[in-house]
Amino acid sequence: MASISFLLGMVPGTEKVETADDQLRADFQAYKDYESSDDLKHYLELEKEVKSNNFALRKKKILKEKYKASEAFRKEIRYNQLLKRSKGDEKSEELEKLDEYISSEEFIKQKQYLTMKPVERYETTDEYQKETEYSTLKKSEKVIWYYRTKKKYPFKEIQKWDLTFDEKFNKSKLDRSKWMTRYFWGDQTMKSSFVLEDDKSFITDGDNIEFYDNKARIVTKSNNVEGLVWRVEQGFVLEDFDFTSGLISTAKSFKQRYGVFNAKIKMAGGSVAQAFWMVSETILPHIDVARFENGKLYSNYFWGKGSSPNKSLSKAGGAKYADEYFIYTLEWTPNKLTWKINGKVFKTQTSGVPQEEMYINFSSNLKKDAAENGLPSAMEIDWVRVYKLKE
Q1: What are phi and psi of 178, to 5 degrees?
Q2: 334 and 368 fall within a common domain
Q3: Is 33 contained in some domain?
Q4: Domain finish residue from 118, 151, 184
Q5: 12: how many CB neighbours lie within 10 A of its CB?
Q6: How does residue 3 score in pLDDT terms, banded at 50, 70 and 90?
């Protein structure tokens, strides 16, 4: 049974949920990029130096330096003494050397530097430049954001997961390296598409898959074709159909045991059955992550063996979920299945949890007892993402 919050229609908005998730992941990437950046490395090196005892001693020395305590002052005094004692143009060797030194740019700069006020003198040094740069960077938005984020660290949950499958449908055609357009069993046994005997529409081999605005559309429409039907008593039988529909599957390219399986989907209102489902190579277990049919939204699970499998069925009123995008999620651990819609728990299952790899399917079908009005109808898929716990 669906949780009471869903029965009461308490579902978070899709845009809000998606925006928050996208922002969190973008922030995580920005955090990782900045953490390994040269900018942060430079800041940390500056911080280490500016806060060191050695830097403090250098700064203290610069501020306490006095001209009268310097070697330059002593040489100037000696120079003046020798100059007074000299006779005319006669200069001793020592005086000539001191005369050359007193006239040098080195002495002039040193005297000018040492006779400045301590604070002004400090402002001419490399130490001051480094301290000022450190202080500026420390107050910068980037550094403040980094340390505030590091303290809160809201990425613990997403950091546990690796993205294992990602489809944005942004190539304006189906990526055949990811998707096949038939049931896996028909492809394996006959290299052909087929449908079940309760289907009124035939699944074409990709003809009913359309693309627009970076979205895939599985279209069900009126169309006369001939195709195979599986009948329990007769096997595969060739029949005529007045309607066609479509399916995409990762059966050949991607299977996974455990993880988080997400898709952003818009189910069309009307009579067409649409589903985001998962299955193993042995048909059972079978999970309906989201199935929209007869005005109801279902999350179902079938497992076991034989013609009477175990089943767990949950549903909610479908009007809310028609013609709007929602993010449908299955969280699968070794001991539990959890269905979510826009991040809110819809259903849980702890018995019969599958332990084999499963693959992803999206399909639409017109069933035998379904009304034929409202066609063409399209199930739209914006994106698909699958995650697995890091080992």
Answers
A1: -105, -40
A2: yes
A3: no
A4: 151
A5: 14
A6: low
Q: Tell me which residue of 217, 329, 339, 325 sits closest to 272, measured CA to CA.
A: 217
Token digits for 165? 């499958």
Same domain, 88 and 225: no
CB-hemisphere CA count at 13 Å for 373?
1
Strand, coil or helix: 203: strand
**Listed residue (272, 280, 269, 277) closest to 299, CA to CA:** 277
pTM: 0.84
Over the stretch 28-55, which tens digit does the pLDDT of each residue have? 999 999 999 999 999 999 999 999 999 9
CB atoms within 10 A of CB 235: 9
* Residue 303's CATH number: 2.60.120.200
CB 181 within 8 A of CB 247: yes
- By CB atoms closer than 10 A (0-12, 13-18, 19+), residue 193 is buried
Any bridge partners for residue 274, and if so which? 292, 364
User: Would you say residue 5 has pLDDT above 60?
Assistant: no
**Residue 18 near residue 329 (C-beta atoms within 8 A):** no
Report d(CA 364, CA 361) in Å as an integer: 10
